[in-house]
Amino acid sequence: MPTIRAVLLDADGVVQLPGSAWSASLGGFCGDPSRADEFLTDVFDAERLCLTGRADFEAALGQVLQKWQLTVSVEAAMRVWNEIEPATDILDLVHSLRSSCISVSLATNQQAYRANVMTNSLRYRTHFDHLLYSCELGFSKPSFEYFSSALTKIAMDPSEVLFIDDHEANVSAARSCGLHGEVFHLSEGVGRMREILKEYGLDVSEQSAPD
Asked: Which of 65, 110, 123, 198 could form a disulfide with 115 if both were Cys (CB 3.0 to 4.6 A apart)?
């Protein structure tokens, strides 16, 4: 069994989910339900350019709204985009791991505006040892450069790190960089997360997340 000293957790799908009405609210802005998916695709494409910090999401989103000739403000669309529901039971596990002297960090593709919400509004800075946002590292998953930069930030050997993500492509990339990797989605339940951690010698007890 490997000796794991650090755990990297993806954010969306592992630690948090979009707000319950997120997709319907954002898609509803286009004004035509039959084209909601097309509109959302344009928004996702606009965000993708911003994940490495090389473009501004507010400006990119504004261009999408202009392309669709929508009257909704960029600010209103941004508020919906930044609706996030943290998984408190997963954060409890994070607290338990850190109480056991295991480093736990977020390893996530995010643009700067959403990263700011996660850091400050959701207070993720108090929950994690490092916030490894792609927009700050300058690289996004599943690139080799992302994982190399993340390892430099946490100052760990890849053989000591467990990476958990809900996308197989990201997990495969992490493994190719020497990290241990497992696929997990919140829909599997916190019990499954406990099983994964236990498989790597991280048998955490139930504790409450810090205030």
From this structure: 110
Those residues whose C-beta lies under 8 Å from the C-beta of residue 71, and which sit 6 or more positions away, are none
**Could you tell me if 205 and 5 are in contact, meaning their C-beta atoms sit under 8 angstroms apart?**
no
Helix axes 190-199, 88-99, angle to 10 degrees: 30
The Cα 132–Cα 100 span in angstroms is 21
Q: Is the dihedral of CA 47, 150, 198, 92 positive or negative?
A: negative
| Helix spans in the chain (H) | 22-28, 36-48, 57-67, 74-81, 88-99, 112-116, 124-127, 134-137, 144-154, 168-176, 190-199
pLDDT digits (tens, 9 = 90+) for 88-129: 999 999 999 999 999 999 999 999 999 999 999 999 999 999
By CB atoms closer than 10 A (0-12, 13-18, 19+), residue 169 is exposed
CA nearest to 26, candidates 13, 12, 8, 38? 38
Per residue in 129-162, pLDDT (tens digit) is: 999 999 999 999 999 999 999 999 999 999 999 9
